[in-house]
Amino acid sequence: RQEPGAGDGPDFLGALQRLGYQSFRPGQAEAIEVLMQRRRLLLVAPTGGGKSLTFQLPGSALPGTTIVLSPLIALMADQVRALEARGVTATFLASTLPGPEISARLGAMARGHYKLVYVAPERLGAPAFRDICRRIAVPLIAIDEAHCISEWGHDFRPEYLQIGELLADLPRARVLACTATATPVVRDEILSRLGLPADTPQIVRGFARPNLALHVAEEEDRRSRERLIDHTLEAALGRAPGARPSGHDAEDMSYGTAIIYAPTRKVTEQESVRLVTRGWRAEAYHAGLEGPQRDRVQARFSRGELDIVVATNAFGMGIDRGDVRAVIHLAPPGSIEAYYQEVGRAGRDGRDALGLLLIAPGDLPLRRRLIERGGGDDSPPAPAVVEHKWNTFLELMRWAEGGSCRHDAILRHFGDEGEALGGCARCDVCRQLSAEADDDPEATTLIVRKALSAVARIHRRFGLQAAVSLLRGAADERLERTGLVNTPTFGALRDHDGPWLLRLLRRCVVAGWVDFTGDDRPVVVLTDIGRQVMRGAVPARLLLPPRHRPAAKDMLPG
Ligand code: ADP
Fold it and tell me: 133-136: long-range contacts (C-beta < 8 A, 24 or more apart)?
């Protein structure tokens, strides 16, 4: 491929080398190219994916001063130091600096001294800063951590709302918004709050983790849960508790370690005691521990002195081991984003690693209580916030319900379909699918095609329950009124009960064949790929729900 800007503009390849890099990582050149040509870009890639280069490089090569908005002062200071070390003039503006220092930096900025100026969002309220921005040449405004503008996001910063005004002030500047966490809904919100058109180019990439084998197990009985955890640890770490390979060097990063995430502090303590009793070198980690104890656990983990850390979600920042071989969740976290971030700490070295999510019927009421209680001693959260968080959690539970490749379903959730594998061959669903491949794929295909034809008939009219009634051949006023009772689909799957059919349809949602639309009253739609599956043009790679075992998740609303 041609390098961005090759031949007809700034020398990006030269700038890349000046910044100390030999070559682009996958996707970086494309992102810069789109930004240069279309002047707007929303870039979604995981943390560590190399997003900074997509503004540092144009910033250092284009004439004028690029403005970078970032809420993380430590990170700004780091990047400024690295740029200056490479001879790129850069600075940052944050209220942690003494007043005279800010004035001096603003003065130099007004004289066009800097190629890049990093700005904390509270600076947007300062007239002096805004005035300088209007007077100097600004080729690019980059917004790092752009999801901070979303009130639904986990990290809302009210100051970010002013970015829209800055962009309106500088209509000729290119705009790059970067984030690691945006789902399609949040992405739309980012664009609208920044005042960018809905057809702004978006690039989503880097979410695929093909070396992770994702498993979900529904296990209520305590004994069998413990057996499953013990078995998983031994399999993933490749050793029995207490075993130390001879000549093992603590620095040897290939030795392997595991993280167990627990829903409460109490459970971290209980589970780590249990594992120690079994002979593992395990410690608990949560925000209720004294600082020195937390540091000690973190340090022992870093030095390879622990087989396992049992932690709440407080354990995360600064996990520097690439050889985490397993991440086990004793209960589902609050969202697919949180889950994928936590399980993504396994296998950073690119070698095989395992994620096990344990679910049980009690998870639903527990999460509901956690959500309603809100964050600590604040007043209880607003009903709309509770509702939003609950729906976010239900998305994770629907993913856990499974039926199609777990890896691909997560990529679909993030909108990173380009990297889907068409089945990862390692998750529990893919393995079960291939184990059952000889059973009767024709029967599965037939059932799925019938289910999708019901969706096609109620497409954009009603919700999932109407599709269930249609398939069961149940009396339903909506089906009478619309004449659907007279179609061959009516009663096409009458051998199956309602809850089973609902689970089947939810699995079709997770597989990407069925989706929802509509604001106050969601109605189903058959997606393009779903239509192809219905017609038999694409195989129905789906695990049917088990027959006689009603699941806790049947309690979930459609
Ligand atoms: P993000 O902002 O997406 O979280 P960063 O921009 O901080 O990620 O990049 C993560 C790391 O990858 C940094 O240490 C950066 O120096 C490095 N990096 C980025 N692009 C390249 C490249 N083309 N070649 C080598 N290293 C790179």
Answer: 133/67, 133/166, 133/169, 133/170, 134/169, 134/170, 135/110, 136/64, 136/65, 136/109, 136/110, 136/112
Nearest Cα to Cα of residue 286 among 258, 311, 317: 311
- Ligand 1 atom 24: residue of nearest CA: 21
Q: What is the pTM of this model?
A: 0.81
Q: What atom in ligand 1 is closest to the CA of residue 23?
A: 23
Instruction: State the sign of the Cα–Cα–Cα–Cα dihedral 444, 446, 449, 453.
Output: negative
Q: How far is the CA of 229 from the centre of ligand 1 (A)?
A: 35
Q: How many residues does the chain have?
A: 558
Residue 108 has pLDDT above 90, yes or no: yes
> Which residue's CA lies nearest to atom 18 of ligand 1?
50
Confidence (pLDDT) at 5 = 47
- ipTM exceeding cut-off 0.90 for this assembly: yes
Taking the C-alpha atoms of residue 261 and residue 460, their distance in angstroms, rounded to an integer, is 40
C-alpha gyration radius of the chain: 26
Report pLDDT digits (tens) over 20-42. Answer: 999 998 889 999 999 999 999 99
- Minimum-distance ligand 1 atom for the alpha carbon of 144: 2
Q: Are 385 and 392 in contact (CB under 8 A)?
A: no
Calpha distance 396→392 (Å, rounded): 7
Ligand 1 centroid, distance to 341 Cα (angstroms): 18
Give 364 Cα–ligand 1 centroid separation in angstroms. Answer: 39
From the CA of 28, how far away is ligand 1's center (Å)? Answer: 10
